[in-house]
Design brief:
The structure is a single chain. By secondary structure, the chain is an alpha+beta fold. Helix content is about 30%, strand content about 30%. The protein contains five helices and seven strands. α4 links the parallel β4 and β5. α1 packs across α2. The chain is globular. The termini are far apart.
Amino acid sequence: MAQRDTKLIIRLALPEEAPVVLNLWQESARWLNSKEIYQWRPEYFNLEQVVEFMTDGSEVYLAENKHETVGTYTLTWSDPQIWKELDNPDSGYIHRFAVNRDFKGQDIGLLLLKSAEENIRHKGKTMIRLDCMADNLRLNQYYKDYGFQYIRRVELGSWSASLYEKQ
């Protein structure tokens, strides 16, 4: 079996890399849709959303392996829309977590989660939080396996989210 080379460079995305981030989001959405999981839709994402994350105080990260973009995530410091009354300043929130499907099976997702956790803790936050589509059982299990604790399910109009946190 070939040895995996998972030495990643994970860094803040530059403004001119907004199209790269958008492509990762849209490709992940297409892959999810091909599995009949409609958590994300490619047409829901646009360049303005990426730029907004890059300029509103959030942090957008890109991961590279041998000069190829392999993943992305965004950190925000508040999420009252999803977390409602549980939103607090002691938490960092992981959003738009996506791995390039060309690099599946290389533990890149776990390395991205570890990076996000380290970046959140570096900001002095004590809780790492995220949400995912409640009906995506595989993704829910993935987060539980990484050590996230299920908090609750929230109804968000036409879909439901599972809320997770890790101390």
